[in-house]
Structures are given as structure tokens and as C-alpha cells.
Design brief:
- Chain B: It is an enzyme of class 1 (oxidoreductase).
- Chain B: Its cofactor is thiamine diphosphate.
- Chain B: Belongs to the BCKDHA family.
- The structure holds 2 protein chains of 2 kinds.
- In chain A, about 35% of the residues lie in helices and about 20% in strands.
- By secondary structure, chain A is α/β, with parallel strands linked by helices.
- Chain A has 2 domains: about 180 residues, Thiamin diphosphate (ThDP)-binding fold, Pyr/PP domains (Rossmann fold, 3-Layer(aba) Sandwich), CATH 3.40.50; about 120 residues, 3-Layer(aba) Sandwich (Rossmann fold), CATH 3.40.50.920.
- In chain A, helix 10 links the parallel strand 13 and strand 14.
- In chain A, helix 3 runs parallel beside helix 4 and helix 8 crosses helix 12.
- The longest helix of chain A has 15 residues.
- The N and C termini of chain A lie far apart (about 85 Å).
- By secondary structure, chain B is an alpha/beta fold.
- Chain B folds into 2 domains: about 300 residues, Rossmann fold, CATH 3.40.50.970; about 30 residues, no CATH class.
- Helices cover about 45% and strands about 10% of the residues of chain B.
- Chain B has 14 helices and 7 strands.
- In chain B, a hairpin with a 2-residue loop joins strand 4 and strand 5.
- The radius of gyration of chain B is 21 Å and the shape is globular.
- The chains are: A alpha/beta, B alpha/beta.
- The interface between A and B is large, with 48 and 44 residues.
- The structure holds thiamine diphosphate.
- The site of thiamine diphosphate has 14 residues of chain B, from strand 4.
Chain lengths: ~350, ~375
């Protein structure tokens, strides 16, 4: 195929999946005539007909709910949520039914469906168009949550997601839709649930996924100029998490840094940091650090560059990994209470 | 499959404010009904299923009081909806029940003890959904409605003319998911019948605080589908209207909303106290409109039922109840290692490890 974009690779994956399996259906908001607002479904309706790729009413819970019923009856629906924040109306369907149908029915009903969600910021979009919602899904047992970072993975992982026996939340890093690479389809990259070393290095392991993989690679390049050898791992699958690949790398480098766009507090990086610490404690030269977005609502486009992790911020964190106990508590001091004891008459001091 | 004609969709007729009836509350035939009555053998089957269902429901309530079930939401009073709707289904059709619809499942032929698995707390659904063509009982309100739409859409794609019956309560119609499902069903023109059992109460909230629509069936109009308002204590009428709606749906006329007006005689569940929110006179008045009694009176008057037959039906119901009693006490409980068996098609390493961990814990005792 030559040089193609991530969006084009995803489009080709859907086209090949539709051609390969008559039970595959693609639907959602504007995915038919228009080909999706990001054109990921471009041309599929005209090629496969409006029975295979079609527009649905604007109703995310309904889109996912109907996909549940379709999958119960042997179809393989691939539905699109137009933007990350607009998947929230469907959250209940995803959490209460999509993730649990196999379990609720003791395995008698499986739901092979894919929910595609363009996610993350960096494209100058207005509010509700730039959320990184991965932690919500990754926290939900029964879902597989994956995110490709390259056109080749976009193709291969989407084909695999459609063929998977389990529901897959397929997170598409929208700011990378137009990144291109040389790709020959059909191709199969590493299995979907496997993390992949994107760049080998000796001193630090950078753990990234989706939109941050490219940023991590840029950072590694920049670090190289200052004499630091940085390994970059693309996690690819957020759930399940590939402990093996990650631990092997961190045990070698002794230093690990997780990078993601989502707010840091309670984010997916916390899970990664915790798992890495547990698996690599005796090998670590420094605590596992995280670089994520600030703990604020996703900012307006004029300010998003300040929020999103960028090369300099990640380089700074790499510096902090050369651990010399530089940690200071981030919290402000407790609020002043000049006469704290007087307000607590039950305390012995107060009674005295 | 979907409506494609350029012409505006036909305006559906207004649902009647008076509920459709075939049998009056005193058990006499209603004259000049809008629907054909089910035939004699169907009427007897309805009675049998209601008597068995009622006995089962009663037994389950007792088991809940004894602490043998974690909870039980009784459908006492709603037998005509439970049975009338379900017996209208063909074998190839699918049923989408809620937590309150155990009697419906029993009348669909699901093993009564498997129906109670959910409520005993053994598993989220105790029966094989595929085999019985019954989705698992749904607890989040209205969320099962869109599943039925997708399922019937898929069935038609595969050239199978399966329809679906969604059971929902009056309260559930307020949920956004109900709206989305109605709308999808109408736009996709799928053969789904949404049977709203208006039992007048959503836990403690009366239906008049739930909806300002003249009847819940009137909601259908806004979606471009047919709506019917039926007496939910008249099993013959519920069966006739649901059968009609299913048949029309299968022949391409799309979905239907049916409001069946009935009453929840008991508490919301065994742990609810309805005296806190409703007048017991109301419950007493509805008790006089008992759906089982009504059909029994009719069948006796028309010579389709005698004491002997009634005794046989009651004996059958008694047998179901005693089997439930015994087996709820003796049937095996689920094994803990099964916790990890049905999460994914192939268990990720993490779950395999956690399973080992649990098995280790159990072995150590
Ligand atoms: C989404 C959701 N919200 C709240 C509840 C809690 N809840 C359980 S039953 C119920 C009332 C439902 O009333 P109705 O739909 O009329 O059905 P009924 O129980 O009367 O059969 C509520 C609020 C729930 N199960 N799901």
C-alpha cells in the first residue's frame, strides 16, 4: 500500500474485515455517507451497501445497546463513538452489559463486538472532544482495551479486535490519525495483547501508549543527545497488561517512567507504576515516575499544549529518575488552625 | 429492512384511553372487542400458566422470607401480563425480562430453580440464555430494550424472522435508554414489542409522578409506532394484543409499545414496606380484580373448565412449588473457581494467577 495514515490503515482494516466475514457490521453516527468525521469508515457504505455500514440515530447508549443484541445473535458489530466524551452516555451499557454478558450468562452468550473511540487531545478541538478516558474502561473487567500507535498496528490490531471473542474497546489516538508510515496490508503485527519495544535503550524505560508513543520516541531521541539511552515500550494493550515485556525491560534498565495524556491522579499510569514496582522492586534505582496531564478538566485548545506531556517535561522526569532523593511533598501545608485544641473539647489536652 | 419509502410514515392510531378488554373484571365476555379472543386451548393454557406462576411466586416469596433467597420481587397481581405476553411468543422469538419477571420465565419453560439462581445469589443468571431464547434478567432499568432491537435486527439480517418481547415497568419508561430503544426500533422497523407492565408504582413513586402522558402507550406515537393500551389483568386481552403486535412486527410493520395496566399487589421486593407510601385500600381494590380469578370464572361459565381440571392444574402447581422448595435447599452452589471462568474467552495471565491464589486460599482453609 505504500505510505498510509493511521486513519487509512483503520479504514483498510474495516474494509478487509467486512469482506472477510459477512457477519461484520459497521455503524454509528455519520459513518455511512460521510465516512465518519475522521473518515475512518470512508467508502465502506458504498462498497458494502447500507446493510453492512450505516448511519444510526444519534444515541450512544442505543448504538452500544443494539450492538449487544446484534452480537447476541451472531453478528460482529463494530460501532463508532464519534468522540471520547460522547461515549459517556453509553458507559452504562458498556459497564453493565458489554463487559458482563459472558459472565452473567456463565459463558453461554459471548459478545464479539468492537467499540471504536477516537480519544485524546492535541488537535485543537473544543471541549468534550479531547478526553482520555482509558482508565474508565481499563478498570472494567471483561473488556479488552487496546490502543494502536502506528498505522501498521492500526490495521493489524483492528482486524484482531474484530475477530476477538470478547468485546474490545478500541481507542484511536485521534491526533495521530494523519501520521503516516510505510505499510503493506494485509499484515499482522505482534498479537494485540502484547507490548512492543519501539526503541531499544539501556538507562531508562519509557512506557507509553497511543498518542504518547510518538512523543516518547521523540524524547528518547533528544535524551540520546545528552548521552542517555532510553528504551521506549508501546503498551498497545491496556487491559490485559503485558507484565512480561515491561518487567524484562525495567529489570534491565532499572528505571521506569510512564507517560500518558490523561490526568495523572488515579490514572492508568498509577496501575502501571504499581505493577512495575511489584515486579521489579529490587532492580529499581529510583521510584517509578509518571508524567501525565494535569489534574484538571481537559483545557481549552488555546492552552492544551501546556497540559499535554511534551518532550521537555518528559526529559525533566528522566532527570529526576537519576535518584538523589529530591522528592518533596506536593501538598500545601495543612491549613492553619491557631486554636485547634479548643475546637475539640473531647481531646485530653483540651480538658486539661 | 429499514423503511426506505419517501412517503411520510403512516400516522398510527391513538391508543384508547380505556384499556382494551376481552374479559370483563367479573369474568364475562366483553361485547364487540377490537381483537379476536385466543382460542379455547390457549385460554386454558393461560389459566394453567397463571396458576402455576402464582404458586411459584408465592413459594419464592416464602423462601425469601425464610432467608433462602437473597431477595425476591414478587409479581403477584401481574400474572396476566407475565403469562399473556410470554405465551404469545413463538419458540424462535426472544424474551428480554427484568428482575420482576420470574413468572414469565417459568411460563417460557425455564427450570423454576434456574430462574431463582439470580435471586438466591448464586449467579447473575441461572439459565442458559441461548437455549431458552431468554436474555438474562435485567436489573438496570430499560437497558435491555435496545438489546432486543439489535437482536431482532440481526435475526432479520440472517433471514430469521425472530421477534422479541421486552418486559419493562412503568418507571423504566422514564429512563433515557427506553427512549433510545423505542427510537431505534421504530427507525430500524424491527419486530420488537415493548410490553410496559404499568403496575402503578416504581418502588414508592406513583406512575403519575413518572409520566404526564395520557397513557404510556401514547408514547409510541412520537416514535412513529403503534401503541396499545390493554387491561393488564385480562390475560386473554394481553395475549391477543401481544400476539397481534408480534405478528404485525414479523410481517414488517415494526415495533409496538403496549401499556398493560395492572397492579403490584405485594411490596416492591420482600424487603420493601409499601405501607409507607401507598394506601392499602388501593391494594384491596385491585385484589378484587384478580387476573387468575377472572379467567377461571370465564372458563367455568363457558364449560371449558370443571373442578377436576382445576384440581389437576392446582396439583401441578403444587408439584412445581415443592420441587422448588426441595431443590433450593439441596441443589449445589457454584464453585469459587468458576469466578474466573466466564470473564474473557481466554483468560489473561492476571486472572489465571488470581484463580490460583484463590484456590490456594481455599485449600489452606
Ligand atoms: C438504572 C436504574 N436506576 C435505578 C434502579 C433501582 N430501581 C430498581 S427497581 C426500581 C423501580 C422500577 O419501577 P418500574 O420500572 O415501574 O418496575 P417495577 O419494579 O414496578 O416492576 C428502581 C428505581 C435500577 N434498577 N436501575
Amino acid at each position: 500500500m505504500g505510505e498510509i495514515s493511521l486513519a487509512r490503515a483503520l479504514n483498510q482494516a474495516l474494509r478487509d474485515a467486512l469482506a472477510h466475514d459477512p457477519d461484520v457490521l459497521v455503524y454509528g453516527e455519520d459513518v455511512g455517507r460521510l465516512g465518519g468525521v475522521f473518515r475512518v469508515t470512508d467508502g465502506l457504505a458504498s462498497e458494502f451497501g447500507s446493510e453492512r455500514c450505516f448511519d444510526s440515530p444519534i444515541a450512544e447508549a442505543g448504538i452500544v445497546g443494539t450492538a449487544v443484541g446484534m452480537a447476541m445473535y451472531g453478528q460482529r458489530p463494530v460501532v463508532e463513538m464519534q468522540f471520547d466524551a460522547f461515549a459517556y452516555p453509553a458507559f452504562e451499557q458498556i459497564v453493565s452489559h458489554v463487559s458482563k454478558m459472558r459472565n452473567r450468562t456463565r459463558g453461554s452468550v459471548e459478545l464479539p463486538l468492537v467499540i471504536r473511540i477516537p480519544y485524546g487531545g492535541g488537535i485543537g478541538a473544543v471541549e468534550h472532544h479531547a478526553d482520555s478516558s482509558e482508565a474508565y474502561y481499563a478498570h472494567t473487567p471483561g473488556l479488552r482495551v487496546v490502543t494502536p500507535a502506528t498505522p501498521a498496528d492500526g490495521y493489524s490490531m483492528l482486524r484482531e479486535a474484530v475477530e476477538a471473542p470478547d468485546p474490545v474497546i478500541f481507542l484511536e489516538p485521534k491526533r495521530r490519525y494523519w501520521n503516516t508510515a510505510e505499510v503493506e496490508t494485509p499484515l499482522r503485527t505482534e498479537p494485540m495483547e502484547q507490548a512492543v519495544v519501539r526503541r531499544a535503550g539501556e538507562d531508562v524505560t519509557l512506557l507509553a501508549y497511543g498518542p504518547m508513543v510518538a512523543t516518547a520516541l521523540e524524547t528518547a531521541e533528544a535524551a540520546n543527545e545528552t548521552g542517555r539511552s532510553v528504551e521506549v515500550i508501546d503498551l498497545r494493550s491496556l487491559s490485559p497488561f503485558d507484565d512480561t515485556t515491561v518487567a524484562a525491560s525495567v529489570r534491565r534498565t532499572g528505571r521506569a517512567l510512564v507517560v500518558h495524556e490523561a490526568s495523572t491522579f488515579g490514572g492508568y499510569g498509577a496501575e502501571v507504576a504499581s505493577r512495575v514496582t511489584e515486579a521489579c522492586f529490587h532492580y529499581l534505582e529510583a521510584p517509578v515516575l509518571r508524567v501525565g496531564g494535569f489534574d484538571i478538566p481537559y483545557p481549552p485548545p488555546a492552552l492544551e499544549e501546556h497540559h499535554l506531556p511534551h518532550v521537555d517535561r518528559i526529559l525533566d522526569a528522566i532527570d529526576r529518575l537519576q535518584w538523589e532523593s529530591t522528592w518533596v511533598p506536593a501538598q500545601s501545608p495543612p491549613p492553619e488552625r491557631p486554636d485547634a485544641t479548643a475546637q475539640h473539647p473531647s481531646r485530653p489536652e483540651a480538658r486539661a | 429492512m429499514k423503511r426506505t419509502d419517501e412517503q411520510p410514515a403512516p400516522v398510527p392510531p391513538l391508543p384508547s384511553l380505556e384499556p382494551l378488554r376481552l374479559v370483563a373484571p367479573d369474568g364475562s365476555r366483553v361485547s364487540g372487542p377490537a381483537f379476536d379472543s385466543p382460542d379455547h386451548s390457549t385460554l386454558v393454557a393461560l389459566l394453567r400458566a397463571m396458576v402455576i406462576g402464582q404458586r411459584f411466586d408465592n413459594q419464592a416469596s416464602t423462601l425469601a422470607r425464610q432467608g433462602r433467597l437473597a431477595v425476591y420481587p414478587s409479581s403477584r397481581g401481574q400474572e396476566a401480563c407475565q403469562v399473556g405476553g410470554t405465551l404469545a411468543l413463538a419458540q424462535r422469538d426472544w424474551l428480554f425480562p427484568t428482575y420482576r419477571d420470574c413468572v414469565s420465565l417459568v411460563s417460557r419453560g425455564v427450570d423454576p430453580v434456574e430462574v431463582l439462581t439470580l435471586l438466591r445469589g448464586d449467579w447473575h443468571s441461572g439459565y442458559d440464555a441461548e437455549t431458552h431464547r431468554c436474555a438474562p434478567q435485567c436489573t438496570p432499568l430499560a437497558t435491555n430494550a435496545s438489546h432486543a432491537v439489535g437482536l431482532t435486527y440481526a435475526a432479520r439480517r440472517r433471514g430469521e424472522n425472530a421477534a422479541a418481547l421486552v418486559l419493562m415497568g412503568d418507571g423504566a419508561t422514564s429512563e433515557g435508554d427506553a427512549h433510545e430503544a423505542y427510537n431505534f426500533a421504530a427507525v430500524w422497523n424491527t419486530p420488537v414489542v415493548f410490553l410496559i407492565q404499568n403496575n402503578h408504582w416504581a418502588i414508592s413513586v406513583p406512575v403519575r409522578e413518572q409520566s404526564a402522558a395520557p397513557t404510556l402507550a401514547h408514547k409510541a406515537l412520537g416514535y412513529g409506532m403503534r401503541g396499545y393500551h390493554v387491561d393488564g389483568n385480562d390475560a386473554a386481552a394481553v395475549h391477543a394484543v401481544v400476539s397481534h403486535a408480534l405478528a404485525e412486527g414479523r410481517s414488517g410493520a415494526g415495533p409496538t409499545i403496549i401499556e398493560a395496566r395492572t397492579y403490584r399487589r405485594g411490596p416492591h421486593t420482600n424487603s420493601d414496606d409499601p405501607r409507607r407510601y401507598r394506601d392499602e385500600d388501593e391494594a384491596r381494590q385491585w385484589a378484587e380484580r384478580d387476573p387468575v380469578q377472572r379467567l377461571e370464572t370465564l372458563l367455568r361459565a363457558e364449560g371449558l373448565l370443571d373442578d377436576g381440571e382445576m384440581e389437576r392444574i392446582e396439583a401441578q402447581a403444587e408439584q412445581v412449588a415443592s420441587r422448588v422448595r426441595e431443590r433450593v435447599a439441596t441443589d449445589g452452589r457454584p464453585t469459587p473457581s468458576e469466578l474466573f471462568s466466564h470473564v474473557y474467552g481466554s483468560a489473561p495471565a492476571l486472572l489465571a494467577r488470581q484463580r490460583q491464589e484463590l484456590l490456594g486460599e481455599i485449600q489452606e482453609g
